[in-house]
Amino acid sequence: MSGLTKFKKMIICFLICSNCLLLSGCWDRVELNDLALVTGLGIDKKGKNTMLTVQLVVPKQLGGGMAMGGSNTKGGGATIIRTGTGAVMADAIRDLQEKIPRRLFWGHVKAVVFSEKVAKEGIRPYIDFLSRNPQMRLRSNMFICKGSAKNVLELSPPIEQSSAEVMRELSELQFLFRVTVKDALQMLAGSTQTAAIPLVQILPAQKGMSDLQTIAFIQRTAIFKKDRMIGSVNDKMSRGLLWIRNEVEQANITVSLKGAKGTITAAIIKMHTKLIPEYKNGKWKMIVKITSEDDVISNATNLSLYNKKHIHLAQKALADETANRIYAALHKVQKMKADVVGFGEAFHRKYPRQWNQVKDRWEDIFPNVEVTIKAKVNFRRPGMNTIPQGIPPEEVKK
Amino acid sequence: MIEKGKISAMQMALMMYPAIIATAILLVPAITAHHAGQDMWLSPIWASFSGFLAVYITLRLHHYYPQKTAIEYSEQIAGKFFGKIIGFVFLFFYLHADGIVVREYGEFIVGNFLMRTPPIFVMGTMVFICALAVRGGVEVIGRLAEMIVPVVTLVILIFVILLIPDMDATNMLPIMEKGIIPSIKGAVTPQSWFSEFFLMAFFLPYLANGENGKKWGIISVLAVFLTLFIINITVLFVLGGITANFVYPVMSAVRYISIADFLEHLEAFVMAVWVGGTFLKITVFYYVVALGTAQWLNLPDYRMLVFPLGFLLLVFSEWIAPSLMELSHLLATTVPFYLSSIQIVLPLILLLIAKFRNRNRMKDGQK
Domains in chain B, ordered, with CATH? Predict the structure, then answer.
């Protein structure tokens, strides 16, 4: 009897141990050294075909490598570029995979770059692929680029590890638009079906450096209607749009005051925009209410900002300047008939019934929306200086 | 009595919580969003009525037959023959429903993480572990719930907090653009999940402190309601109008988390904890089927039924639907009525008959 229990125990022991064999993983077991981590994805058109460019991380070997110098000057060597072509994106990926010994892993894509040509033909097929793939992240930042997306990803920037990382960092600074795949999906599916996506351009390389040792920076904003790019606006205009969208993180405004030489520059610490839609007798009106808190970062006038009068004067001038910038940007997009500032959504929220009647022809109504901008600027701190520096005290207007 | 273990009312509440939540955060938010749009946060409010109703019916029935589970008292209420038929309906239903749960689990794991692994393997290993837990009896399941549920709740809370920077509250406007109807339509599927509170009918007889059953039952419904409410509102705030476009909106939202560039890619963590919740859900259903079958067949023990039923469970999970699209369609159309007709309407009929019988009996007693 005891022999049997011993036998039983042995069987149980054996079964438990054999379980460990299964622990090594199942069909999806992938070792890190079998993966090719994609950090950047570029989409180009090559004739009728789609050309896909991926930026892959090269796992650095400890020691060695870098010390070789010489051969490394052409680039950091942290990333490599591969391209694949195919009728559609999935084909291009297959073509790409043929040239890479490791399995492509899409979980770390930081930047997705579309060439302007692709953007003008429509990004929907690509963006569907991006959001359908379970490895891809909705967090990846989206960019449009002038010229070919391949050229943008090819760059090996002097500071960051890869050009994709550079673009991501730049857009996280939020000087200009920051758009993730999720944001783009939301904008394109939203009530106005328009989108604004940052447009990057290659910065000319520093003298003495190779052409590739530079970065691509966000310079303009591409405006999309449905899924097609219809134009772009410059950085100043883009910031104007950001004001209305309540997305300004950093901005400086410079004004000159009446009756004083020189300029005053203020930096925004905090801002808030409120859209107040109004619908009366078939007329669409929008009041844009902006309040911001600023610090003075430069005062080249001879006015002391410890005087309430001068403060009011400067605040008023700054508010007017802000409003002017916004008007200019707004006129531009109104001319393009592209509501990327969220007026449609604001009307939809407040006047759902009226909105549903006109939503199909919003394109034609948007350019005629009467806009009033009410900007208010409050100074908080004067920086480190009390009165303007660098001039004799008697010339300062107290 | 077949089951000799005793659990506390709190343990029962903790078992019920993942038994509703675990799958209610997978495909259901997308279905709700599809119907309710930006009003999807209202839907859990309407849906929770179903939960309170189920708890009420269960408690009333328990009041009439305190020592008996649903299988046993349906025989007493409807007579030997019809009682057996009703019992069979319950058992078949819970086996089938558990099959759906196992399938949802398998689809989720295979669709998101283990793409090349055969689903039958993913589901099979899970059912095997659940079988072991079921063989352990009600006390073991109760203690497992005590262990796992606090962690699950905590993780859900943490991911909601981490998503706060990405939330946009204007996504919920305009509230009730098309009236109240869309949000009620959106509540149809979640309400059937709430009807699963009828599962309590199988645990109430084993409570050590039966008098607290009512209190903890209601607390459990409230907890589920709050969780679904918070999850729906989080998903809505993060994804807005495109919520319905994702198969697993909660998963898509969690994957979106990124705090300071290093606290990201958290889905594996959430996943691991979520598997714990699903394990409890499958186990609770599985236990009910095993125990109920033994009672239905008047067997002295249910343990020898566990593995054969597990095999049936796997087969059912394969049969449910040929593809994820069909499964989702099933959950959006048939399942709400299927679940609530068996877990609310049928018990309600039983309750009415029981009331009638007891009144007669009382009258007889008075004579």
Answer: 13-361 (1.20.1740.10)
Contact A143, A172 (CB under 8 A): no
Question: What are the start and end residues of each CATH 3.30.300.210 domain in chain A?
Answer: 235-398
Q: How far is CA B296 from each of CA B138, B300, B309, B344, rounded to the nearest angstrom?
A: 18, 11, 14, 21
How much of chain B is in helix, strand and coil states, percent to nearest 5? 80, 0, 15
Integer-rounded Cα Rg, in Å, for chain B is 21
Query: Which region holds residue A113: left if phi is over 0, alpha if psi is between -120 and 50, else beta?
Result: beta
Chain A, chain B: beta-carbon pairs less than 8 Å apart: 52
Q: Residue B313 to residues B94, B144, B190, B291: CA-CA distances in angstroms?
A: 10, 21, 23, 15
What digits encode the pLDDT tens for the residues A66-92? Answer: 444 433 433 445 788 888 898 888 888
Instruction: Give chain A positions within 8 Å (CB) of B111.
Output: 134
Q: Three-state SS string across B129-176, please?
A: HHHHHHHHCHHHHHHHHHHHHHHHHHHHHHHHHHHHHHCCHHHHCCCC
Q: What CATH number should be reported for the domain whose range is A235-398?
A: 3.30.300.210
Q: Indicate if ipTM > 0.90.
A: no
Most B-contacting residue of A12, A27, A192 (CB-CB within 10 A), to test interface: A27
Chain A residues near residue B174 by CB distance under 8 angstroms: 348-350, 352
Tell me the mean pLDDT in the region A243-253.
82
Q: If you write DSSP's letter for every residue of B306-358 in order, what string do you get?
A: HHHHHHHHHHHHHHS-SSHHHHHHHHHHHHHHHHHIIIIIHHHHHHHHHHHHH
Which segments within B155-240 are labelled E, that is strand? Answer: none
> Phi and psi for B201 in degrees, rounded to 5?
-60, -25
Q: Largest Cα–Cα distance of chain A, in whole Å?
A: 112
